[in-house]
Amino acid sequence: MSFNRRDVLQRSVALGAALGLPGLALAEDWLTLRAAPAALKILPIDKPVEALWAYNNRYPGPPLTVRQGSEMRVRLHNDLPQDTTVHWHGIRVPNAMDGVPGMTQAAVAPGQQFEYRFTVPDAGTFWYHPHVNTYEQVGRGLAGALVVQERDPVDVDADWLWVLTDQRLDRTGRLVESFGDLHDSAHAGRIGNVVFINGSLDQDFKAQPFTRIRLRLVAATSARMFALRFVSARAWLWALDGHPVAVQALSEPLTLAPGQRADVVLEVPASGEALRIQDMFYGDRGYELASIKAQGPSRKQVQAAPKALPDNPLPSIGAPRQAAVQLTLQGGAMSREATREALWLINGKAMKSEGGHGHMPALFSLPAGQSLDLHLQNQTMWHHPLHFHGVWLRQKTGDQWGPVRDTVLLQPREKTTVRLFADQPGHWMVHCHVLSHQAHGMMGHFEVT
Ligand code: C2O
Ligand code: CU
Cβ(132)–Cβ(354) under 8 Å? Predict the structure, then answer.
C-alpha cells in the first residue's frame, strides 16, 4: 500500500482523535470530506448496515482537529445521489462559509466539489453536518466532530471525544428508511432505537484510577435528547456548545439536545470501581449509556476542582439598542396551527427549504457589533432545541444571563428570553435542531447588517 502525503495526514488526524490524542491538521494542507453512500459494519454482527451515507466512509464522519486560530481548508466532494453542503455548527465563520444552500452558497450537486476555508477563532467542541435535506443526510450518518484545541495545553490527563448518534434499526439490523415520516415529524421527531458512541455499540471503557478525563460530548442525533447522570464519579461542567463556563460540580443530570455539546471533566474512581453514565431523559426508559472501569496503576487523587478553561476571544458587545423581538413556536400533532404542509411554524410561518428564503421576510435584523433580546415562546407540547447560525447567545435565568451557547433548548410550553450577539454580517438561519421539525417548517432566517 502506498500513501500520498494527504492520506497520511488525514489518517494521523483521525487516528489521533480516536486514541484521545488529537493530531493537528497542518494549516497549509487541504482536508478532504467525501460524502457518499456507505455500508458499514457498525453492529456486532457480520452484516454491515446498508443505506448509510458517510463522510470518508466513516460513521460518524472523521473527527477534525485543529489548533485555535489556524485556518481550516476542507474540500467537500459530493458523491451522494443528491445535493449537499457542509455547515460548521457553532464555529464563527464568515457568512459565505456557513453552508446554507441558496442563502450562503449554491448547493453542491452530485459529482461536484466545494472548498471551505476559514480560520477558527474559538477553542472548543464543535461539529459539522450537511444543510440540505438535513433530516435525511444527518439521519443516514453525515455528521462529525470538529475539535478546536486551546492554544496552550489544558490541565487534564486525557481528552476523549464521544459523538452520540442513534439509528432506527429493525430486528435484523437493517436501517428503517422512514426519514421524514409524518407521524414522527409531528411529534418528537425520528428517535432511533440504538444509541452509538463514535459509531460503536462497544460502550465499556477503561481508564486509570483517579485520572481526570476531558469528555467532549456531541449530540449529533436527529431528535433524541439526553440527560446524562455520572454515577459514582466526581464530575464538573467545563464548557457548553464549545464555550467555557464557570466550573461547577455536576449534581443534576446534564441535558444535551440535538446540536448541543458539553465538555465535562470526569474523575475516574478508585481501582476496581466503575463510573457509570446513565441517560435519564426519557424517564422510565432510562438506560446505561456507558461505563468507565478504573483499571491499571492509580494516580494520586487531586482534591481541587479543575481550573476554568481560557475564555474565547468573543468581541465584547453591550446591551441591546433596539426593542426585544418575539419569536413564537407553534405546531405539532393536534395543534390548531399545524397543517400537512406546515406542521411547525415560527411566528405563524413555515419555511420549508433553505433555498426558499427569498420568498420569506427575515424574522428580524440587527447590526453587527450589537445585541438583541428575543422573547421565545414555545406554544407547543414538544421540546425544541433552537439553533442560531452566525451569532452567539445567552439565556436569561432570573436576573442573570447564562453561559454562551449556540443552541437553546425550549421545554414544552416554555417562555424564555435569550440575548443574541452579532459580529458577522449576512443572512443567517435559525431553526429547530430536531431535524424533522426543521424540515416541516420550524426554520427561518434573520439578517445581521
Ligand atoms: Cu447544526 Cu443549521 O445546524
Ligand atoms: Cu422542534
Answer: yes
**Distance between terminal CA atoms of the chain?**
52
User: Cβ(234) to ligand 1 under 6 A?
Assistant: no
Helix (H, G, I), strand (E, B) or coil at 343: coil
Please state the rounded mean pLDDT for residues 296-317.
96
Q: For ligand 1, is residue 243 a contact (CB within 6 Å)?
A: no
Q: Is 433 helix (H, G, I), strand (E, B) or coil?
A: coil
Q: In the numeric block, which cell numbers belong to residue 398?
A: 432570573
In DSSP terms, 119 is beta-bridged to: 71
Q: For position 184, which CATH number holds?
A: 2.60.40.420
Q: Cell numbers for 229, please give them.
A: 447522570
Residue 399 shares a structural domain with residue 421: yes
Nearest to 380 by CA among 341, 428, 430, 414: 414
Q: Is the whole-model pTM more than 0.90?
A: yes
Q: Count Cβ atoms within 10 A of the Cβ of residue 14 and give its class: 0-12 exposed, 13-18 middle, 19 or more buried.
A: buried
**Look-up of cell digits 472548543:** 124
Q: How far is the CA of 275 from the centre of ligand 2 (A)?
A: 32
User: Structural domain of residue 120, as residue ranges?
Assistant: 5-149
Do 176 and 280 fall within a single domain?
A: yes
Residue 423 lies in a domain: yes
Number of domains in the chain: 3
> In this structure, is residue 421 part of a structural domain?
yes
Q: Domain check: are 178 and 264 in the same one?
A: yes
Residue 100 alpha carbon, nearest atom of ligand 1 = 2
Q: Which amino acid type is present at position 111?
A: G
Q: Which residue has the cell 453552508?
A: 99
Predicted pLDDT of residue 357: 67
**Does residue 143 sit in the same domain as residue 165?**
no
Q: Is 216 in the pocket of ligand 1 (CB under 6 A)?
A: no
| Tens digits of residue pLDDT in 82-130 | 999 999 999 999 999 999 999 999 999 999 999 999 999 999 999 999 9
Q: Does 312 reside within a domain?
A: no
For strands 415-422 and 407-410, give the pairing: unpaired
The CA distance from 316 to 318, in Å, is: 7
Cα–Cα–Cα angle for 33, 35, 36, rounded to 5 degrees: 140
* Banded pLDDT at 14 (limits 50, 70, 90): very low
Q: With beta carbons less than 8 A apart as the criterion, state whether 100 and 354 touch.
A: yes
Atom of ligand 1 nearest to the CA of 429: 2
The verdict on the CB of residue 431 being under 6 Å from ligand 1 is yes
Q: Domain boundary at 149, 183, 216, which?
A: 149
Which of 114, 149, 184 lies at the terminal end of a domain, its last residue? Answer: 149
Which backbone phi and psi does 66 adopt, to 5 degrees?
A: -140, 160
Q: Is 9 in the same domain as 145?
A: yes
User: Whose atoms come closest to the Cα of 387: which ligand?
Assistant: 1
Q: Which residue stretches of 363-431 are H helix?
A: none
